[in-house]
Every structure is written in C-alpha cells, then in structure tokens.
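Q: I'm writing up a methods section and want to include an example of the input and output format. Could you take the sequence below and give the corresponding predicted structure tokens, formatted cleanly so I can copy it straight into the document?
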Amino acid sequence: TPVPEPSPTSDETFGLAAFVQALTGQGRAVQANPSRIAKPYLSVLGTVVRVDGQPVQVFEYPDEVTLDIDLASLAPDASSAGGVDLTWPAAPHFWRRGLLLALAATDDSALVEAIDAVLGPQIAGRTIGE
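A: Here is the clean output for your methods example:
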C-alpha cells in the first residue's frame, strides 16, 4: 500500500511555526525572538524572526476580517498606513498567507525571494532599488 503524501499546510493554519520550518527547509538560519513587537498601524502584536541574521516581523491574526481591516489602511507602496506617513531604512515588503502577515525592510533580493517562495508574492511595498 502506498504511503499517502502529507497534505500541504492550509493557508488558514499557516502560522509562525510553519513559516520558520519552511525557511529552515530552504537551508536558511532562522531564529525567532520570544519578545513581542507592536506596530501602531496593526492591531496585533508580532514576533521578530531573524532569517540569515536579518529581521522579519511576523504577525499572526485571529481572523481574516481583522487582517483585512489592518491592510485596508496600508498604501500599496507602504508609504503610509492609516493616513500616517511611514519611513523605512530599506525597501519595505509585506506578505500575506492565510492569517499570517510578514514585514521586512530590506534591500536583500535573496531574502525577498526566499520569503516569496514561502508566502507568495508581496502584497504591498516596493521593489528593491525603487
């Protein structure tokens, strides 16, 4: 009898642990910081995950409605949220998969490509060099 293939993680249950596992599976060095972070334009607390030493902020939402409300105020290029201008140390990138939102301000195209491979294309932000 053939062994069934494990089912892929559904987007609804995709969370921080699955994100870390997927990046680790790519051979990346991943470390989650247990302390929580807050962004004034997001309604949930997040976790900083270091991917090859670079910070990626990960926010897990309780439901899709709350995530949709938070994202509704974010400008497509991430220049503002809720009418407040945002400044970034590098190109901002936002990704969403299920109830998980990830944010990285980076000009490292390899990091962006690694996260794209796990979460899909970014939903807001800028391309590197913009």
